[in-house]
Amino acid sequence: MRTLRRLNSAFGFQTSAKWIILATVVGVSSGVAAIAFDVLGQLIIRMTLIQIAGYSPPEALGEFSRFESVLGGPAATFSPWWIVLIMTAGGLASGVLVYSLAPEAAGAGTDAALDAFHNRQGRIQARIPFVKTLASAITLGTGGSGGREGPIAQISAGFASALSNKLNLSNRERRILLAAGMGAGVGAIFRAPLAGAIFAGEILYSDADLEADVILPSSAAAVIAYSIYTQSLPAESRFVPLFGDDLQHVFNTPVELLPYAVLAIVLTFVATGYVGVLRGTRNLFERLPILPHFRPAIGAGLAGLTAIGLLYAFRGDTRVLGVLGTGYGSLQTAVTAATQMGIPLLLTIAVGKALTAALTISSGGAGGIFGPSMVIGGCIGAAIGLTFQAIVPDLVSEPEAFAVVGMAGFFSGVARAPISTIIMVRALTGDYGLLLPTMLVSTLTFFTCRRFRLYEKQVPTRMDSRAHRGDFIVDVLEGLRVEDIYRKDQHLVLISEGMTLDDIVHGLAYTNQHYFPVIDADDNMIGIFSDEDVRAYLYDDTLWTLVNAKDVMISDFIAVAPKDNLNTALKRFTSLNLDELPVIDPEKPGKLLGMLRRKETIDAYNRRLVDLKRYETEH
To answer: How far is Cα 320 from Cα 205, in angstroms, rounded to an integer?
Structure first.
């Protein structure tokens, strides 16, 4: 760290090696953080749900249980009510930890990282990653309904921000590194480095915009993080997709796109309800007249009661408990054997997952919303697939394919990140035969769900981000030229180089002009002075007949050409704090064409900005 700081101080890292080195450090920290988060979460599951409640949450096929061989199987008989007590205790521990030490670590985590990027110059307090790691492991490890992407995104982004502060990086560099941390963490924990890299640039904006500057640093960091994280897994599990490598569905005919289009419509309605439930639940918890420390305990307890109620409703079928934890076990069945679950159970898990996720996360529990979104989308997709299989069995023979497409389509719509989600789901399932319907459904939900986004701290485009506010002022000014607005004033007062100060002083009384170009005998401009320059001589009238314009003027003056853009002009205005600049013909040096005013430059920018905003509104 000290070596990096010295290099940055001495050379500013003004080479491509800078981002390679920084991305490597971020990748290492993100990979280690992903391992710590995973290990801690699994340890808590083993010590609570398995050892006390006798319940081992089913996981995806590609998951690896780190403590099964060490601690053995369940140490207790299955007890549903112990699950409720453990979840409540976990919510209480997480809430007290978060709201006592780092309230910013509450909730999903991704929104907090987005807020830091757009509004806080990429700054995340150094203690937040540690608090988030422990709180999220407790929440998910005790059965809280949530995902891993939000916590690991905030954790890795926090370490990247801390590194930036240590190296005294600029605000722009800190933001880029923060986003790279997000991508590295997500790419590692889901074993999908490419998806993580694209996610980092895409998740920042809700419209079709991308933070291109973060893609390469995020790609490098994600590769390093992925490599480190997978080394903690046994060799046989390192390159297996999360949901196994046996999902090889086939897309046969374009006619199949019609049922997939129906799936997109259904997912849009579900997305509306899901976002509404999340925000409505959050508003209810915020109105509770209690300390926020205790809200996650209430949310977790209610989520546990919901799950137990569904368990009794389905006569002890433990598959319905997929509404708790990550829910990947239920999703695994949906994408491999949807018929075994049936439409009623699939729909129940989808609706129940939306409710338990809202109770867990909206109450302040530390968990992500990517996991629940995939479970909801996958189960809804499987249910739609089974429905079409019953109606048109010759057209739809694999309802599980709808589960895979539903996973991607649902999150693409509500998270406003279609590209990274398509890549992510392909990496999680290893199924590339459904690329066309996945693209169709994800594109449709992206457009139909634009009013129902999960991440409130997303902004529509880079123009709406405070992180890029200065960039677009420059862009607008570069679209205007000096010749469009400068004053071609035929009544401009020109001063000959031999005019005495006496004549100049008396002439000032008859003009409102502030800057006076000085010309020679050939009418070429050789200098300029302002009325402020003349005032320095007013108190000594003995000099008035001795001093002439050539003595008063500034010969090394700053000028602009008609073809210069207004960004160039504004920089020259601000370099010496001038209010007017002479416009000189570049083909005839010394030929004065007129004067450009600073006020007119700013007015032109404001008019252009209004025109751009009006165009955006109309289109």
So the answer is: 35
Percentage of the chain exceeding pLDDT 90? 38
Sheet of 495-496, strand order: 495-496, 515-519, 525-530
CATH number of 479-611: 3.10.580.10
Q: Is 418 exposed, middle or buried (0-12, 13-18, 19+ CB in 10 A)?
A: buried
Residue 252 has pLDDT above 80, yes or no: no
Question: H or E segment at 525?
Answer: strand 525-530
Separation between Cα atoms, residue 146 and residue 454, nearest integer Å? 14
Domain range 2-470, CATH architecture: Orthogonal Bundle (1.10)
Contacts of 34 (CB under 8 A, 6+ apart): 152, 156, 185, 188, 189, 225, 228, 229
- DSSP states of 188-241 as a string? HHTT-HHHHHHHHHHTTBSSS---GGGHHHHHHHHHHHHHHHHTTS-GGGTTS-
The pLDDT of residue 275: 92
C-beta of residue 482 within 8 angstroms of C-beta of residue 583: yes
pLDDT at position 619 is 45
pLDDT of residue 587: 85
**Structure tokens of 532?**
């402020």
Q: Burial of 162 by CB count in 10 Å (0-12 exposed, 13-18 middle, 19+ buried)?
A: buried
Q: How confident is the model at residue 11, as a pLDDT?
A: 43
What are phi and psi for residue 583, nearest 5 degrees?
-100, 120
pLDDT at 12: 45
Q: Alpha carbon of 209 to those of 202, 327, 361, 418: distances in Å?
A: 7, 31, 27, 11
**Distance from C-alpha of 194 to C-alpha of 160, rounded to nearest angstrom:** 19
Q: Report d(CA 237, CA 284) in Å as an integer.
A: 43
Domain ranges of the chain: 2-470, 479-611
Separation between Cα atoms, residue 37 and residue 30, nearest integer Å: 10
pLDDT in tens, 596-605: 888 888 888 7
Residue 550 CA to residue 603 CA, distance in Å, equals 33
Are the CB atoms for 140 and 41 separated by under 8 Å? yes
Regarding pTM above 0.85, the answer is: no
